[in-house]
Design brief:
- 52% of the residues lie in helices and 12% in strands.
- The protein is α/β, with parallel strands linked by helices.
- The strands form four sheets. It has a five-stranded parallel β-sheet, sandwiched between helices. The chain has a five-stranded parallel β-sheet with strand order 9-10-8-11-14.
- A hairpin with a 6-residue loop joins β5 and β6.
- The longest helix has 22 residues.
- It starts with 9 loop residues before the first helix and ends in an 11-residue tail after the last helix.
């Protein structure tokens, strides 16, 4: 997360981030440079009317029998995109160049790279591919095809490369079977259909001899480094020698990602989680590394009382008597702090508020909209272990933990005291209150990221940091 050179004013920045204006302009500029239209203004108008910047543009590559067809068909089903492969181009499309390509095929001659590139370009220029997006299966096969596609303006956003040991691919290839009706691929050992009707109509694909397979593998390994060189910034290699659901899950995660943008970004981070889940520690680590303002709602209220501000005087009776401070007073103090110059310039990380859906809605009404929301998850046993054993030295103010950080000397151990909030019965009440309200809050922040907080704090930090750096994933993909 690089510090932005010049932050946008909050209302402008929030508007630009919400509508992804920078990405929209970047996409239009890329299209202009690729296609070089005679009338750039009209071209941009047409581009905006198409409204297809989020349409998938995915290449699925890999050696023979690695599962490209299975992955491509699954992506098409879940993304409502158009699948393009050698088979669809030669046998299912009526394109100007199809006859010429079939002639090469009938003569058992290799179809030239330029002809493949032109076929693909012609197919991808159709309205369905423009609107719905495309999944290009098995293309490009080599560096020359990749360059030709690039020069034609066919640039994938994601390239999935499947890999597996050659021995596993040869074994898998021998049992490969094809459903001619649906084009689904099955296997005699690993993925046999349960429906007897499907079993009966399965056919063995052509050219499946072990010798032919070995030749294809050699050719693939010879050509792949050149393809990798071109697409390495948008390429993800996935091990295909594992259960298909694991492969599809990893493919799904990758194609949902968005690549980093150079857009100005002011972090507005919200941490939600039960007591003892490590929100304050993670907020401190983020604030220390990225110079964002660390805001604990509870501490903010105490500072207002200590500073004897007008709002502080109003909330003092509630804090002194242990009562919850009314939301409207909390919001006034919080809004004033979050709208301060340092927060607007550097960004902020907030925890301790909101605690329920009503408070979340009040934040939104006050135009305080976080661009990253994290929910910390932690088992109740771990919460109890972390909190119930906390102790404080009344002489030095030093904090200890009976298990993780015991007092260094017996005389210190003797004088340690426990905060009443850390007694088991009080912890149980706080945890119960959190879980009573959290479901509605999770639904309210639908783009929230969930954190396994029951692990080493530095592991948690690395995960949170990676989620802040990367753009939020695209939500278009349907669930499995």
């Amino acid at each position: 997360m690089d510090a932005p050179a010049r932050p946008w004013p909050p209302p402008v920045g929030a508007y630009a981030e919400e509508r992804e204006l920078f990405r929209l302009l970047q996409n239009m500029l890329e299209e202009l440079l690729i296609h070089k239209p005679d009338d750039p203004i009209q071209y941009m108008i047409n581009h905006l009317k198409q409204n297809n910047d989020d349409a998938p543009r995915i290449c699925v590559l890999g050696p023979p029998a690695s599962g490209k067809t299975t992955v491509a068909m699954w992506l098409c089903k879940h993304l409502d995109a158009i699948r393009i492969s050698q088979e669809t181009l030669l046998f299912k499309e009526i394109l100007a160049l199809t006859r010429e390509a079939k002639t090469y095929k009938e003569r058992k001659q290799k179809i030239p790279n330029a002809l493949w590139a032109n076929l693909i370009q012609e197919r991808l220029s159709n309205v369905d591919c423009i609107k719905q997006g495309w999944i290009l299966e098995g293309f490009p096969e080599n560096q020359e095809q990749a360059w030709m596609l690039q020069s034609s303006g066919i640039i994938p956003r994601h390239v999935v490369v499947l890999y597996a040991p050659d021995t596993a691919l040869i074994e898998r290839n021998s049992g490969k079977r094809l459903d001619p009706f649906t084009e689904e691929v099955y296997h005699t050992t690993f993925d046999w259909p349960s429906d007897p009707l499907i079993q009966q109509r399965l056919v063995k694909p052509e050219d499946l001899s072990e010798q032919e397979m070995s030749k294809k593998l050699v050719e693939y390994h010879r050509n792949f480094p050149g393809v990798f060189q071109i697409y390495q910034k948008v390429l993800k290699s996935i091990n295909a020698d594992q259960p298909s659901m694991d492969v599809l899950s990893q493919v799904r995660t990758y194609v949902q990602t968005r690549h980093r943008s150079a857009a100005p970004f002011t972090p507005r981070i919200l941490f939600c989680g039960p007591p003892g889940s490590g929100k304050s520690l993670q907020a401190a680590l983020i604030a220390q590394k990225y110079s964002v303002v660390n805001i604990c709602c509870g501490q903010l209220l105490k500072e207002a009382v200590a500073d004897k501000t007008k709002l502080g005087e109003l909330i003092k009776p509630y804090i002194d008597n242990g009562y919850p401070v009314p939301d409207n007073l909390v919001m006034k103090i919080l809004a004033e702090r979050l709208n301060a110059l340092d927060c607007m310039t550097n960004g902020w990380v907030l925890y301790g508020f909101p605690r329920d859906i009503e408070q979340g809605e009040q934040l939104q009404k006050s135009h305080i909209i976080p661009n990253r929301v994290f929910f910390f998850n932690l088992p109740c046993e771990s919460i109890m272990e972390r909190l119930s054993q906390r102790r404080i030295d009344p002489v030095t103010g030093e904090r200890y933990h009976m298990t993780f950080r015991p007092a260094p000397a017996p005389e210190i151990q003797v004088r340690l005291r426990q905060n009443p909030r850390d007694k088991e019965e009080n912890i149980e009440k706080r945890v119960e209150t959190y879980y009573r309200n959290v479901k509605e809050l999770e639904d309210f922040y639908e783009d929230a990221i969930y954190v396994n907080a029951d692990q080493d704090p530095h592991v948690v930090f690395e995960f949170i940091e990676s989620c802040i750096i990367k753009p939020l994933p695209c939500k278009k993909l349907k669930s499995l």
